[in-house]
Amino acid sequence: MIPRAMADKLRDLAETFPAVTLTGPRQSGKSTLVKETFPQYRYVSLEDADVREAAREDPHSFLSRYDSRVIFDEAQRAPELFSYMQGVIDSSDELGQYVLSGSQNFLLLKSISQSLAGRVAVLHLLPLSYAELVAGEKTPATIDDFLFTGGYPQLNATKTAPADYFRSYVATYVDRDVREELGVRRVAQFNAFLTMCATRIGEVLNIEGLANDCDISVDTARSWLSILESSFIAFRLHPFHKNYGKRLIKAPKLYFYDTGLAANLLGVESAEELMLSRYRGSLYENAVVVEIAKQYEAIGREPKLFYWRDSNQKEIDLIIEKGGEPQYAIEVKSSATYRSSAFKTLEDIAPAMGLDPQRRFVVYGGDESFETKHGQVLGLADLNKLVS
């Protein structure tokens, strides 16, 4: 197992809250992490049909059998348990009674909000970050290998070919989450929608155009995009809310939580092919944004990430906010060669945001990190400097 940066935070929260919930995309390593972090806990998987039926038919008796120090995996599949958990928690002052994990964020958090609000801490485990791979001595051979493979643990721990893995992953995701749990019936159209979303990585989202290209209604496109977000497949990066005297673009940009999945949907068949692909810059930008998000999630903090673009098409790829104000402004360049011109837009806009050169960054595709008179230049391995 590649050590996960979230393990310490998960353990700390179990000493602070009666229950802890770990959610995230399928196969991101949730079950492995909770079992490794809490080896003394009993493990109960609600994926097992017989176990699930027992939990749903008689939740009171089922929970009395597992009243403390227990992991319930895929907990959203037995929502009847949650109100009974509330009773057990409220009758005791014991911390760390339950560890809940699940892959369907919408269903899991709906159950929590109805029964366990204020009693449970929630963490999101995303696929492996570049930093975790480096720390686990699994550093990708090249940036293109990282973009092509992505961060799902199985792909980085075995010799499974990404094409084989993601074909199975998408089929499982559609059959389980989309068809069975979320009720989407037009599976072929949904798959086309998923692929069309991948072609729009890093672009300002035009929901009407996306709907037209997929031959679906705008309301359906919005609903399906929400499904992708609740299942940790894709997410929207919203524009920063202060205009600094400029007219701003107000639509969000679209990214995926894993570049390997996105590259597969785009039909990229190897790291070498990706290196020459027209999507390489977008995928690298995606990797930088989600790498920072992963590092914030690992310490249990919500990433406050935005982008900035005005009506003259001047854009800052990423703004990290702290206390309602910009903390860092970041430009992303996929080239491994640094050029000072990469700071041009930052030098035009960042002063109005109150950001001096020490808080202006260019993240590029090279290995070395260094300071310049314009700002700081970082490689992918040093993005932890932006997380504080």
From TrEMBL:
Pfam families: AAA_14 (PF13173), DUF4143 (PF13635). Residues 175-335 form the DUF4143 domain. Signal peptide: none annotated. InterPro entries: AAA_14 (IPR041682), DUF4143 (IPR025420), P-loop_NTPase (IPR027417). Residues 18-133 form the AAA domain. PANTHER family: CONSERVED PROTEIN (PTHR43566), DUF4143 DOMAIN-CONTAINING PROTEIN (PTHR43566:SF2). This is ATPase AAA. It comes from Bifidobacterium panos.
